[in-house]
Each structure stands twice: as C-alpha cells, then as structure tokens.
C-alpha cells in the first residue's frame, strides 16, 4: 500500500494505526505504547558555529546547550543544497532537491512549487494518525496548491517565502533613499493561516517591521498551544523559524539583551523559543515520548557581515557547496533513546530524516523513489556506525554538480562560486558584494582538513577515481549543467501553477 492510500485509510482507521505503529517499528518505540511525537526545528541561515554546542557563544544558547547535554550532536549533518527552497524541499521529501526540480530560492513571482505527487514528512505522519502543524517559513511555493495545508499539515501559520522578500529589503530602502520614486523590488509580504479543512486565508497582507519583531514569539506561542492541545495524541510539529535570516528582527524583550549586537540578541531569542517549546513538551509529560531534531537550512550569508553568523573553521558560507555552506549544526534529542551527551561524526543528511521517521513510526515509504536512508543507528546507537551514503552529491544552481563526497573525502569539480575573498562583510544590515572565484578540481580529506585547504588528489588517486565514477552515475540520473547535461533519467518535474488555478494575490506597494 502506498502512502497516499494509507492517508485515506487513516481517516477511517485512525486509532488502529497508533497500535500498529509500535508493532511494526524496528527502531526505538515509546514507553507509552504509541509512536513518538516528532518536532523539527529548521532555522534559516544559522551557521555551523552559531550555537554553543558547536563552538558558538554558549552564553547565548543555554537551552540548546542543555539539549546537547541530554541528546546527541551530529557533527557531519549536511543539507542537499546551500540555499532556501532547495534545502527545504529535500528535508520535506527525503529527495535530493535536484530529483524533484526545486532549485534556488523561490520568489513571489514563481509559478512552481512542490509537486502534489511528492510525499512529505507531514503526510508520512498523517498516514499514522498524527496531528500535524507548521509555524514559520514554508518556501516551497506560495500559491494555494503548493502551501503546507495541501501537503499534509492540518494547521499552518507563517510566511510563504523569505522574510527579506518584502518592500523593506535593505537594498530596496537604499534605492528609495537615492530616488524616492523608485519602485519596490518586492510585493508586500503576507502572513498566511490555513487548515486542511478550511483552506487558507491571508491574515496580514502587509507585514511590517513590528510584525517581524514579534514573529518568533508568535510562532513560539502557537507551537506551545499546539503541543498542549495534544497531550495524548501523537503529533508532528515543524518550526522553520525565519531567523537569523536578514533582515534580523527581535522583540523588545531581547533587543540589546546580549550586549553583543543584534545577531546575538536574535540568537538569544531563538534559544528562548526552543526552550519554551521543550518546556511545553515536559509540561504535558511526553518528553520521553518525543523526538526533537534541531538544524538549519544552510550556512551564513557572509556578505551581511555583522548580521550574519559564523561557520567557524569551515570554508565559505551560504550559496556555496563548500562545508560552510551546507554542513549544519544539528542536535537530536529523545530522553531514554538518544544517548545523552554524545556526538556522532558520521555523514548523514536532511534527506535521511523522512525515511528514518517513516521507519520509526511504522509508516509506508513514499510511492516515488527517494534518496535518503534510515539513520536510526546514527540517532540512537551507542556506536554511530557507518554512513549509509557511499557517495553524497552537492548540486547547486540549476543542475550544477559541484561536489561529491563520502564519509571522509570530498571531490570538488571546477565551478564558479561566490566569496568574500578575505574581505569583511557588511554592517547594519547592508551587504557587501561578493567576488566570483573559480574552484579547481581538488580532493579534500575532511577528516584531517575540515577547512578544505589542501588538495590530496595525488596521494589518493584511487579515491578520485571512485568518486569520479560515482559522479558519472549521478550525472546520468540528475544531469550536470557544468557538463552540458541539462537533465537526467530520474529528474521529476516540480509542481506548476496551471492556467485557471487559484493564485495567491500579490500586492505591490
């Protein structure tokens, strides 16, 4: 039975699934006799070294520090691509973004989004009788057919794309300062509320700075209310907070609180939000029946300087497939199941989240092929074991195969990439321009050279040959525009807005 048949059957046999899930699951099961609740935090542009457990300022993130102490750090957890929509599509579907043709960061004029035939984590959970909710940034298509309530979420509240896609983008404000009659680059930013039963409605058609300043608190409040309204039923909660993506916004309570600048203030509020949601889980007594994953969509937007985070010793940031762009600070927490205070350096990815959750709750796999693997051993095992990825590819842009790696080595192919090239980023929310550089083919030993500084191709020709062969197999499946291969045998179409279908209206200032 495929997942979509399961979804229909679950409406009739909802209670049955709660019992069946625990019987079928091969991975840890709940002490309460039902599948665990699932909570995923997915931050925006939060970098590898932005939180205490990964080398950041520990005084800013006491709640995340505690989660690390009670759970496990995943130190080699990567996303599919170092940019918003591509990264989010991979998390939600268990597929490389290239397979499902979601590239880059979809903007307000896009006519594409997630395809209705793709199966999301929310739909996986719905098939087992879960209540599902999302509060935050979606960015997988903003027209109604693409929104979360059409893809497995009972409840949705948030913004359809990035918080800087609005008329008060710093670049737009700077343009208007030079010419008051200049037109905005962006329409008004809407806030959308939706349910699977009643559909969507725009609850704020013109988000203002004061609204963004309260947004983390609003998402937190709604998350806490959702958790407390399901004290006995299994639930899946997805919290993709738009912070710390620029423009940075923080409530009055946290503004200036860190004494270390606006970015630090934002990180303090993000940590507070996580703490409130964890406390809600504990308040209803389900902490030993709740799996929590905390991670980010890509690395820091380095051109924004003091409004961007830090990838630490990792090379580059957002918009590149060097480690600083797509390796994310990741925590997994489930008291009694995840070994407390541990770290795991085994390669794994957001594409592995869906199949792991499916295995955990006893759900059927998606009908269409996916790329992720069950990584229960990496989350729950005393010994993390071997990575399920013999080769993990790094696509960027519209189909450029820029990197391929295994658990130790990474092969970089010739391509152009953006870099500060040693210069300093911008200040006060305004970016500086990147320099475009040319990467040469190189093999990096990530076990001994995490900063990707030294080409070891000559020392490991057999590794180069193996990864080259694996790359060719992916080019056949997914294409490689760097090689002039526009598509591949396994690339699926994105969802498309067809003539006559309902559109989300855009209001231009």
Description:
This protein is α/β, with parallel strands linked by helices and 509 residues long. It contains twelve helices and 19 strands. The longest helix has 22 residues, at 3-24. The termini are far apart.
Characteristics:
single chain, 509 residues, alpha/beta
Structure described in brief:
Helices cover 26% and strands 18% of the residues. It is α/β, with parallel strands linked by helices.
Query: Which strand-content bin applies to the residues?
Result: 15-25%
Largest sheet: 11 strands, mixed
Helix proportion:
25-40%
Helix count from the secondary structure assignment: 12
- The count of DSSP E runs of length 2 or more, i.e. the number of strands, is 19
Structural class: alpha/beta
Beginning-to-end CA distance, first to last residue:
49 Å
Question: Secondary-structure blueprint of this entry?
Answer:
Blueprint: H1 3-24, E1 37-43, H2 62-70, E2 72-78, H3 84-93, E3 112-113, H4 121-126, E4 131-137, E5 155-159, H5 170-178, E6 191-195, E7 199-204, H6 209-213, H7 215-228, E8 235-239, H8 262-283, E9 290-296, H9 323-326, E10 327-333, E11 342-344, E12 348-349, H10 353-361, H11 376-380, E13 392-396, E14 400-405, E15 409-412, E16 415-419, E17 435-439, E18 442-445, H12 461-478, E19 495-496
Parallel strand pairs: 1-8, 1-9, 2-11, 2-12, 4-5, 4-8
Antiparallel strand pairs: 2-10, 3-19, 5-6, 6-7, 9-10, 13-14, 14-15, 15-18, 16-17
Helix pairs in contact: 7-8
């Amino acid at each position: 039975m495929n997942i979509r048949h399961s979804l229909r059957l679950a409406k009739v046999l909802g209670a049955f699934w709660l019992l069946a899930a625990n019987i079928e699951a091969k991975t840890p099961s709940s002490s309460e006799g039902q599948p665990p609740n699932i909570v995923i935090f997915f931050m925006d542009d939060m970098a590898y070294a932005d939180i205490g457990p990964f080398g950041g300022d520990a005084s800013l993130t006491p709640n995340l520090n505690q989660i690390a102490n009670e759970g496990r750090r995943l130190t080699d957890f990567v996303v599919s691509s170092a940019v918003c929509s591509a990264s989010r599509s991979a998390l939600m579907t268990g597929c490389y973004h290239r397979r499902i043709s979601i590239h880059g960061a979809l903007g307000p004029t896009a006519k594409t989004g997630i395809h209705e035939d793709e199966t999301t984590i929310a739909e996986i959970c719905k098939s087992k009788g879960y209540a599902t909710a999302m509060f935050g940034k979606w960015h997988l298509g903003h027209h109604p057919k693409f929104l979360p309530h059409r893809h497995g979420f009972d409840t949705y509240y948030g913004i359809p794309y990035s918080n800087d896609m609005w008329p008060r983008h710093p670049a737009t404000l700077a343009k208007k300062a030079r010419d008051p009659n200049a037109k905005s680059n962006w329409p008004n930013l809407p806030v959308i509320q939706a349910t699977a039963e009643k559909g969507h409605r725009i609850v704020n058609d013109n988000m203002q700075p004061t609204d963004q300043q309260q947004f983390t608190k609003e998402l937190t409040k709604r998350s806490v209310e959702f958790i407390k309204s399901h004290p006995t039923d299994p639930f899946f909660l997805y919290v993709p907070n738009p912070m710390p993506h620029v423009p940075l916004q923080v409530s009055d309570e946290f503004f200036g609180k860190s004494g270390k600048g606006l970015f630090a203030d934002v990180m303090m509020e993000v940590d507070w939000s996580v703490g409130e949601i964890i406390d809600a889980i504990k308040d209803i007594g389900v902490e030993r029946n709740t799996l929590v994953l905390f991670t980010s969509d890509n690395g820091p937007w380095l051109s924004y300087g003091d409004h961007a985070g830090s990838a630490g010793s990792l090379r580059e940031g957002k918009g590149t497939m060097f480690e600083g762009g797509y390796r994310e600070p990741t925590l997994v927490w489930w008291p009694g199941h995840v070994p407390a205070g541990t770290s795991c350096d085994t390669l794994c990815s957001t594409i592995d989240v869906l199949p792991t959750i499916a295995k955990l709750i006893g759900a059927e796999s998606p009908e269409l092929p996916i790329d992720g693997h069950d990584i229960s051993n990496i989350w729950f095992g005393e010994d993390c074991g071997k990575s399920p990825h013999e080769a993990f590819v790094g696509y960027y842009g519209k189909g450029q195969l820029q990197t391929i790696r295994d658990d130790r080595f990474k092969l970089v192919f010739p391509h152009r990439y953006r870099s500060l090239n040693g210069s300093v980023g911008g200040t006060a929310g305004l970016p500086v321009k990147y320099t475009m550089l040319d990467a040469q083919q190189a093999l990096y030993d990530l076990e001994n050279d995490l900063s990707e500084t030294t080409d070891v191709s000559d020392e490991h020709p057999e590794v180069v040959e193996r990864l080259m062969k694996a790359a060719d197999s992916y080019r056949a499946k997914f294409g490689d525009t760097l090689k002039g291969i526009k598509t591949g045998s396994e690339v699926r179409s994105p969802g498309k807005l067809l003539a006559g279908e309902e559109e989300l209206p855009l209001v231009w200032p």
